[in-house]
Amino acid sequence: MQAELDTYLEHLRSTRQLSPHSVDGYRRDLHKVIAHGERQRLETWRELSSAHLRQLIAELHRKGQSSRSLARLLSSVRGLYRYLNQEGLCQHDPAAGLSAPKGERRLPRLLDTDRAMQLLDGGVEDDFIARRDQAMLELFYSSGLRLSELVGLDLDQLDLPAGLVRVTGKGNKARELPVGRKAREALQAWLPLRALAGPQDGALFIGQQGRRLGQRAVQKRVREAGVRELGQHLHPHMLRHSFASHLLESSQDLRSVQELLGHADIGTTQIYTHLDFQHLAKVYDQAHPRAKRKQDSES
After folding, report:
1. pLDDT tens for residues 40-72?
2. How far apart are CA 31 and CA 26, in angstroms?
3. Same structural domain for residues 212 and 277?
């Protein structure tokens, strides 16, 4: 079983070109199946049955494995058997028709509007790191970006005059998102400092050596901003959750928020509907608390 698994993992790396993180996820899941198979004295993947797999899922569920983890394990098994069947090594899929036990769906952690304003409205030093970090925080909250989407952004994906940013999300799907007034102002303050740092490529967010910021660096900066401004743990996805919930509170337009978040299934977006919505069917820059236009009298 291990030899065939190694061949499959190499297929994921070289042919499908999955990231090392994704390949490691498959490896961990499928090692659990191999360990269970060894306890059942199975010698090949051809011997693994739906009953064996159902027993493993039940065992892991009793030990406290989350429904999401178990669903991912079943998905890993399906992927393996698709490969084994294509290679003529098997003629069945023991995961066919199986599903993970339904678990209690946890509501996402988020900031309420006042806390979001407290985070973003503090004083900002006029230096490289402070201006960059403020621009990142504002863009996370303004446009509901995933962490991977923000670190992957290039300057040419940003259209500040139009108030738009183009991102590439899960499944390599592109979408165009509005950028609110506050985020545009923060980006306009950041871009001259970015240019002075000598960017090594087109990355929108860079370090002081000119290199693109990685995910861990961004997570660290967001965490430090949470401690400094709010006295609490903060991570990028909390800003994405806050974006979605605050927009839904004001607009009640679930389909539009689904599009903005880049969710393939509206069921994923519906987790935000636990809030009591105000009935305001307005466009993005009227609904989002940091995208509202200045009144004419302020111009």
Report:
1. 999 999 999 999 999 999 999 888 888 888 989
2. 8
3. yes
Pair 66, 128 in one domain: no
Of the CA atoms within 13 Å of residue 249, those in its CB half-sphere come to: 12
Instruction: Compute the Cα dihedral for 238, 60, 77, 53 and give only its sign.
Output: negative
Show the domain range for 211. Answer: 113-291
Are residues 172 and 149 in contact, defined by beta-carbon separation less than 8 angstroms? Answer: no
**pTM, whole model, 2 decimals?**
0.58
pLDDT tens for residues 260-269? 887 777 666 6
Residues labelled catalytic: 146, 170, 237, 240, 263, 272
CA–CA distance, 99 with 50 (Å, rounded to integer): 11
Give the distance from CA 101 to its chain's centroid. 24
Structural domains counted in the chain: 2
Given a contact cutoff of 8 angstroms between Cβ atoms, the answer to whether 73 and 57 are in contact is yes
Q: Who's near 73: CB < 8 A, 6+ residues apart?
A: 29, 32, 33, 57, 60, 100
Q: What would the two tokens of residue 147 be?
A: 């962490």
What's the CA gap between 67 and 73, in Å, rounded? 10
Q: CA 115, 119, 120: angle at the middle one, nearest 5? A: 120
CA-CA distance, 141 to 114, in Å (whole number)?
A: 13
Say if 76 falls within a structural domain.
yes
Maximal CA-CA distance, the chain: 78
